[in-house]
Amino acid sequence: MSLASRPDIISFAGGMPGNELFPVEAIEELFRGLDTRSKRAAFQYGPTPGLPSLLESLGGFLERKGLPVKSNRLMITTGSQQALSILARAFVDPGDRVLTEYPCFIGAISAFRACGAEIIALPVDEEGIDIERLSEEVQRPDLAKFLYITPYFHNPAGMLYGTERKRQLIETLQGRDVPLIEDDAYGELWFSEEDRERLQPIKSIDPEGIDVCYIGSFSKILGPGLRLGWMLAPESIYEKCELIKQSADACSPSFSQVIADAFIRSGKIGPYIASVREEYKRRAACMSDALRRYLPDYVKWNEPRGGFYIWLTLPEGTDSAKILKLAIERGAVFVTGSTFDPDGTRNDTMRISYCNNTPEEINKGIPIIAAAIREICG
Ligand SMILES: Cc1ncc(COP(=O)(O)O)c(C=O)c1O
């Protein structure tokens, strides 16, 4: 974060929305238009599960995505990072095994580690998690406490789960007593209508014999500074989570909740998401174009279909930290692969993001990274 904010460095490291994309004027106008009672409520403590008005409007938003809001319980959290933290505390005792993907979102790794979890990271390919490995894991006597996945524009791998792989995953987990945490932080940021079917959350099926805890966030569809996320979970899990949240922060920021509620109810959220989707699609296309032009052929990557990230796979055994050092000296920064490895060892990969860069920055920064790769890998 500190390198990313240095003005002389082009950062492809952050997972932050573009500052210039935030709907500042729309929010100013919405807040001004609220009645005094709502404005005062924004300064006040609120109920632990969230302001009733936001629970209702967000519930409607999620129902339109096909999520089973009425047969589960919805909770507003302080970012979806808090949802991860609460779920980890609800499920994990020190030494317990939990299953994640490799690579895995760093915030999830740290939330699970903080509870003393032993993280077992199962590899992913372009279609999703390795089902054979998952199948072995769910048959062990020392069963994992849950499986955590990010199926929609994965952070950091960028990939989108295939429909068949999701079906296999459901079949593998059914009746196994391994709850599923489905993290959908980026699903709204798709680039092609064709992918809509693949984006249908597993939670929307709510398959029998699996407790699915679905988590999401306003961070990428409004602004991470609001620190607002949510969790949709079965009643029994929800109850434990509510107690944990109460001890963590009593309630999520009321101010943010009033704003998010007004944003949904005004009908502005849909057009806003559509506009940022288009912008990220343009940035992704610009980044792909630069990668095609400058990267050596031995670096493997996939065209982004949504979200914020491209995952580069370098020749086996490469240490991407050496590439990072050179790139920083010359003015560009990215995140090394080992950051997303729960074991912290595998480092022949790297994540570059396109979400917060102009075409000029992309066209200046990618040649720097490509040159650093050639210098280290030959
Ligand atoms: C996959 C994933 N999940 C959860 C989060 C947490 O986001 P927030 O706490 O801002 O909602 C992030 C943030 O980058 C993420 O990439």
Give the helix/strand layout.
Elements: E1 10-11, H1 24-32, H2 36-43, H3 52-64, E2 73-77, H4 79-91, E3 97-102, H5 106-114, E4 118-125, E5 128-129, H6 131-137, E6 147-149, H7 163-173, E7 180-183, H8 202-205, E8 212-217, E9 229-233, H9 235-249, H10 254-265, H11 269-294, E10 309-313, H12 320-330, E11 332-333, E12 335-336, E13 349-353, H13 359-377
Parallel strand pairs: 1-11, 3-4, 6-7, 7-8
Antiparallel strand pairs: 2-9, 4-5, 8-9, 10-13, 12-13
Helix pairs in contact: 2-10, 3-10, 4-5, 4-9, 11-13, 12-13
This protein binds pyridoxal-5'-phosphate.
Q: Assign the CATH topology of the largest domain.
A: Aspartate Aminotransferase, domain 2
- How large is the count of helical segments? 13
Averaged pLDDT: 96
Radius of gyration: 21 Å
* Residue share in helix: 40-55%
At the fourth CATH level, what is the homologous superfamily of the largest domain? Type I PLP-dependent aspartate aminotransferase-like (Major domain)
Domains counted in the coordinates: how many? 2
Q: If classified by CATH, what would the architecture of the largest domain be? A: 3-Layer(aba) Sandwich
Q: What is the element string, with H for helices and E for strands?
A: EHHHEHEHEEHEHEHEEHHHEHEEEH
End-to-end separation in angstroms reads 30 Å
Question: Which class best fits the helix and strand makeup?
Answer: alpha/beta
Which cofactors or ions or other ligands sit in this model? pyridoxal-5'-phosphate
Q: How are strands sequenced across the largest beta sheet?
A: 2-9-8-7-6
- Which runs of at least 5 residues are low in confidence (pLDDT < 50)? none
Q: What proportion of the residues form beta strands (DSSP E)?
A: 5-15%
Shape: globular
For the secondary structure, the number of strands is 13
Largest sheet: number of strands, sense, barrel closure: 5 strands, mixed
